Amino acid sequence: MPGYQPTLDQIEIVRLIGISLAAVACISAIPAVMDIVDHLRSETSLGVARWAYLVLMLAALQGAYAAYVHQLPDWSTVWVVTVVTLVIATGYALMLGLTFITRSDAWVVSVLDLGDVFRGGRASVWCFVMLCLTSLVSYFTGRISVRWRHELIGA
Length: 155
What we know:
By secondary structure, the protein is mostly helical. It has helices spanning about 10-40, 50-70, 75-100, 105-110, 115-120, 120-155.
C-alpha cells in the first residue's frame, strides 16, 4: 500500500505556514529579549521578569511547531498547529483582558512581575498585537487544513 505524498503546492503551503509561525514566534520574543538586555545592562537590576520567561517559552513552543509542520506536511499537522496557535491566542486574550480589568497592585501583576510594563500600558498593546497575529495564523491554518482534508477525502 503506497504512502501519502503531498503535492508540491501543499509542501509550499506548509513551508509558508512554518515561516509565518516562526516569524510570529520571533516577534513575540522581542519584549522578553529586551527585558533580558535591560537586565544585563543594569547593575542594579533585580533580575529578569517572570513574564519574560513565559513569553520565551511560548516563542520556543511556536518555533518547535514551525519545525514540526515542516517535517510532516499533512492536513492533520496543519490542524494541530491551528489548535496550538488558537490556545496561545486565547492566552493572549486572557492577558489582554486582565490588563484592562486589574489594577497595578493585583496579585497576577506581582506574580508575573508585570509592574513596569503594566503601568505604561505596553502590556495591553503587546497582548493585542500578539492576539491579532496568532489569531490570523490560527484562522488561515484552520482554513488550509479543512480545505486540504476535503481535497484528500474527496468531499
